[in-house]
Design goal:
By secondary structure, the protein is an alpha+beta fold. Helix content is 21%, strand content 40%.
């Protein structure tokens, strides 16, 4: 497959890599100075990852904690900026340690520059952390 160039194609490709648990290839989609933000992150969780290296460190062990199996609801909206998209999605799978279901809703505002992620604001649902029996210890999420 040739390298995706549009923000929509890059994002869809990134979801496939997450489902394949190919975190190194997912990280390779990032610009060197690309950053990731978590505006709704609760205390004790990262609010901002400053560059590709920080994103790589954050995501390195993700498949050891969350076994993503599908993104059954994904809607990608184009914006007036051709490099920016807004994504509504739901990720489902299992928590590896407890084998409990994982079901997370997200809204992401993603900007792509030169075919790579330049910024990714991930508005994940922190209320999932409050659900009984949910253990995200060490999962970075």
């Amino acid at each position: 497959m040739s390298a995706p160039t549009s923000p929509v194609d890059l994002f869809r490709h990134s979801l496939r890599l997450l489902l394949d648990k190919d975190i190194p290839a997912w990280v390779d989609l990032w610009a060197e100075d690309g950053f990731m933000e978590f505006p709704f992150a609760p205390d004790g969780r990262p609010k901002r990852l400053e560059n590709r290296e920080a994103v790589a460190a954050y995501m390195r062990h993700y498949p050891d904690h969350i076994d993503l199996r599908d993104f059954p609801e994904t809607r990608i909206h184009r914006t007036t900026d051709p490099e920016t998209i807004v994504v509504e999605m739901r990720g489902v799978g299992r928590l590896v340690e407890s084998d409990r279901p994982f079901d997370m809703t997200y809204i992401a505002v993603v900007t792509v520059r030169d075919g790579r992620f330049a910024s990714y604001r991930d508005y994940w649902n922190p209320l999932v952390l409050l659900e009984p029996g949910t253990d995200f210890a060490g999962s970075n999420r």
